């Protein structure tokens, strides 16, 4: 049932182009607009929402962090993202005009479920983004947008994450469409790009052999740092989480702009530092800032592993290892940038002799608080 792969995780990584395409299927009409009738929250409620609050745990939380950039940019609705386990213990401010989005692969995560219950008690509308039909979180929410990743068996989430991102983009674009924001042209253009994005994911998967080799060469390291900016920051957090749970290595994700506020003290000879570089077209200022971060890290002797768009030559002189990803609209970059980090963590786990599908101490769904 592993379909010829050694681990479910490898199979699930390989299934990502299909999972992404399936999650888009039937949701973009021939005219290029979104039809999300399954969101049974009436359009006027969506139009009048004054705030979006996203609650989730672990990898799903990272999808939520990325969603915030998309929602605020395309809809101009303020959006907060919170770990479900923190959310309800802090007496959050919610009302009938708050749209809460609960993201959960399993639909059974207790912390997220408790956050959903709390939000509904306060009168907020709750939309679940979930991969498991008929599970508890969608049943207790006002509406659900299912991700169509298919069953995810490996404890480390991969294809569910990519489809959570797709679902988040769909919700963000749909909110923009329903509310008729100024980003209308951009929204239509991004919908077209999203419709093609599974091909880009497939292309990344075809170029992963050097990433595997690199991972094997780092098997004896103790620490790996991950840096990113904008939507690349949650990608860095996700890369670090994957490495912790699979390779049992110390790994941390940082916002690259924070480097000089502390983390740069950690940089020393031969420390592997993975840097996710934003698109030079989408974010030229951020791009240039991150290139100087890479220079600073390299000047201190660290080993730089750079994930950058095809055609971005400015990074080449400072990269000890360069991982290329296809050109995408800036906000969609996590769909391609995350994939090498999944492969990297999986290969490192294998090289260190760890159990890939069932990492120690972890359960696939955490049904206790
Ligand atoms: O089923 P959920 O999406 O609610 O699960 C949330 C987290 O427990 C989950 O993403 C966890 O962090 C994964 N093991 C990460 O790979």
UniProtKB/TrEMBL annotation:
<dbReference type="GO" id="GO:0004360">
    <property type="term" value="F:glutamine-fructose-6-phosphate transaminase (isomerizing) activity"/>
</dbReference>
<comment type="function">
    <text>Catalyzes the first step in hexosamine metabolism, converting fructose-6P into glucosamine-6P using glutamine as a nitrogen source.</text>
</comment>
<protein>
    <recommendedName>
        <fullName>Glutamine--fructose-6-phosphate aminotransferase [isomerizing]</fullName>
        <ecNumber>2.6.1.16</ecNumber>
    </recommendedName>
</protein>
<comment type="subunit">
    <text>Homodimer.</text>
</comment>
<feature type="domain" description="SIS">
    <location>
        <begin position="214"/>
        <end position="359"/>
    </location>
</feature>
<keyword id="KW-0808">Transferase</keyword>
<feature type="domain" description="SIS">
    <location>
        <begin position="42"/>
        <end position="181"/>
    </location>
</feature>
<keyword id="KW-0963">Cytoplasm</keyword>
<keyword id="KW-0677">Repeat</keyword>
<keyword id="KW-0315">Glutamine amidotransferase</keyword>
<feature type="active site" description="For Fru-6P isomerization activity">
    <location>
        <position position="364"/>
    </location>
</feature>
<keyword id="KW-0032">Aminotransferase</keyword>
